[in-house]
Amino acid sequence: MGVYCRLSTGKAEYELMAENADVRRIRLLELLAASDEPQSLESLADHMECDTRTIRRDLDLLQRLLQNVQGLEVRRGRVMVARSGYSPGYFTAQLGKNLAVKEAIARQVVATLADDLAVALTAGSTPYAIAREMRRSVVEEGKPQNLIVFTNSVPALQELIAAGISAGVLGEIYDPEDCSFHTPEFRSAFQPSVAIVGASGVLMTVSGAGASLELYSHRAEEAAFMKLLLAHVPEVVVAVDSTKIGKRHPWNFGGTVLHGKTVRLVTDNLTREQSQEFAELTPRFARHGMTLIVETADTPPKK
Questions:
Q1: Helices 52-68 and 10-34, interaxial angle, to 10°?
Q2: Of 22, 37, 91, 288, which cross-links 259 as Cys (Cβ 3.0–4.6 Å)?
Q3: pTM across the whole model
């Protein structure tokens, strides 16, 4: 058991608490590695002399680390990490881009989710960040409660299952490029209240007195799947970093499919011109029965 002594300086006290937490996690990992039988949270908490919520947080941290490391190797005095990962492709290439912004957007989205909500979460690096934030929030804070989340993203599904969130799979045909499923004819008894989607491009177009919000994908199969999925969902959360705004990609899944819906666009710090354009076009969107709400996550301002 780690020894805790109260020191006079706050920094030293914090460092000692952090060191004791690290010792507890190593002991927890050693205990689990030495056991062939499942362990209850209560018995682990008793053994570690802490509460079950602390054990949950420790297990979540250990699982995250173990997911990213397959092994260690020392070569000529240098430590090499063998990492686990997903198949090379578009999704994997996007994972590390604008990571801090994606995590901020994820916090903004998850903080507004109500309890007892049915959610469709689509593939992409930003929706994946949202799945990770769902996991963190449920494990560490116990909210939102009673989520049901269906997704076509395999990485997101793994995060949801690890958090104990009720989850299911959308789609039938697996595409390793995006680590996700799609289907040419989408039929499902699942009726989500909200869909959370990413996009590789977001563009506002004006036609006569009206306007459309165009969402883009880099793949035709994904765009077709998204149109089918969004057709009957009353609320759509579009989670994209601001670098995607004003860009178009080959395949569109927005436009008329968003008419009559509430659309929340959650992004990071917009430029003055982008904010002005949204403000000017919002009344035009309303002429198609679409309510547009633009939210900016708490991220450092653009330079």
A1: 70
A2: 288
A3: 0.76
